[in-house]
Amino acid sequence: MTIEFLAGFSRSPMVRGAERSPVAGEKLKARRFEQVVMPHLDSAYNLARWLTRSDADAQDVVQEACLRAFKYFDGFDGQYANAWLLKIVRNTCFTWMKDNRPAEESIALEDNAEEVDRDETSMHISASGLGRSPEALLIEKRESQRLDALIGQLPACYREVVILREMEDMSYRDIAEIVGVPIGTVMSRLARGRQFLQSSWRGSPHGSDRP
């Protein structure tokens, strides 16, 4: 996240109003929000950028998500702040995408969870991998632009779990909580996403398995 974005959020009417509030509880809420939630803005922006595929749109989405998070911060139990914020960011992203993107983008947001869960090949890939792993590909900086393009081609339901698992290193439990699906569905979608990336990597002009 940029310094300008962080400064913009701190100047937002909701947060600014809390800071000026004579009520000690509101001041404490604003300070606690800054300490507990704001450190996770990089992850929030990363997820929003990959889902919207736009830096500018991601900043708008995260700004809105942070305002929502602050509004409902009193109900936060204090555990797993990163997952709590990313769930709000994820929901805000999808709401924004449905309102601002063509119909074909919205279609990509859904998949047949039961069909994915029944895909034994996909589950096997998730457990054991198939050839060159996405984890290995992600750390090859010289190929990062091509890999970014392939990730961007994933349907959003697969793209989000790949980003949360491979880039944010989140547990299956946390991803399931953020996305709102069973852990088995997270594993299946991750396997499908990995399979797509591996197949596309190998099928692209520079996607051979040369060392």
Please report the total strand number as a whole number.
Answer: 0
Tell me the β content: under 5%
**Helix-strand sequence:** HHHHHHHHHHHHHH
Helix content: over 70%
What distance lies between the first and last C-alpha atoms, to the nearest angstrom?
Answer: 34 Å
For the residues shown, what is the average pLDDT? 75
Domain tally: 2
Structural class: mainly alpha
Oligomeric state of shown chains: single chain
Spans of 5+ residues with little confidence (pLDDT < 50)? Answer: 106-131, 205-211
State Rg: 19 Å
Shape: elongated
- SS summary, helix count: 14
* Biggest pleated sheet: none
Ordered list of secondary-structure elements with their pairings:
Layout: H1 3-10, H2 13-20, H3 24-36, H4 41-52, H5 55-71, H6 81-100, H7 103-107, H8 113-117, H9 120-128, H10 134-138, H11 144-153, H12 156-167, H13 172-179, H14 183-203
Tell me what the structure shows.
The chain has helices at 3-10, 13-20, 24-36, 41-52, 55-71, 81-100, 103-107, 113-117, 120-128, 134-138, 144-153, 156-167, 172-179, 183-203. It is an all-alpha fold. It has 2 domains: 3-105, no CATH class; 111-203, Winged helix-like DNA-binding domain superfamily/Winged helix DNA-binding domain (Arc Repressor Mutant, subunit A, Orthogonal Bundle). Helix 4 (41-52) packs parallel to helix 6 and helix 6 crosses helix 13.
Quick rundown:
By secondary structure, the chain is mainly α. It has two domains: 103 residues, no CATH class; 93 residues, Arc Repressor Mutant, subunit A, CATH 1.10.10.10.
Any key phrases for this structure?
mainly alpha, 211 residues, 14 helices, single chain, Arc Repressor Mutant, subunit A
